[in-house]
Every structure is written in C-alpha cells, then in structure tokens.
Amino acid sequence: QAKRQGKAPTTQAGAFVREEMEHAKRGKHPVKSRKQAIAIGLSKARRAGVKLPPPKTRHQAQREYRKAA
C-alpha cells in the first residue's frame, strides 16, 4: 500500500520492521537482540519487493534486491 502511494523505500520497510519488533516483543520469534529483529524485518521487506539496498556482505540479500527490481 505504501508503495502504491509513492512512499520512500525506507518508509515501506518500516511496516515490516515494526511488525517484526512486535513479534519479538510478544515472543513469536526467538530473536536474541533488537538488531536481529530489524534485520529480519528488512529481509522480509526485500523479499516483498521493497527496493532497499542490500547489506554489503550478504549475497542472499543482493539476490533479493536484484529480484525485486
């Protein structure tokens, strides 16, 4: 929905990160840190097609980024 409204990619990804943080808080995902929950949310956003730049060291994220293009 945010993509259709022309929002920035970081705004689009924010919804995925918020959802993941909520899951971590409720205990639905056994994450060890907040950073890990953010990384999971960003990964889900990339898989959903949000045009986020991949981390420099992650080949899987780079493939998802190219696939989202």
User: Which ranges are low-confidence, i.e. pLDDT below 50, for 5 or more consecutive residues?
Assistant: none
Order of helices and strands: HHH
Determine the fraction of residues in helical runs and give it as a percent range.
55-70%
Shape, per Cα inertia axes = globular
Mean pLDDT figure: 80
| Structural class by sheet pairing and helices | mainly alpha
Strand runs, count: 0
Number of helices: 3
Distance between the termini: 18 Å
Radius of gyration: 12 Å
**Estimated share of beta-strand residues:** under 5%
Main beta sheet: none
What is the structure about, briefly put?
With 69 residues, the protein is mostly helical. The protein contains three helices and no strands.
Q: Helix and strand layout, with pairings?
A:
Elements: H1 9-26, H2 34-47, H3 59-68
Helix pairs in contact: 1-2
Question: Can you characterise this structure?
Answer:
The chain has 69 residues and is mostly helical. Helix content is 61%, strand content 0%. The protein is built from three helices and no strands. The longest helix is centred in the first third of the chain and has 18 residues. The two termini are 18 Å apart. The model has no long low-confidence stretch (mean pLDDT 80).
Keywords for this entry:
69 residues; globular
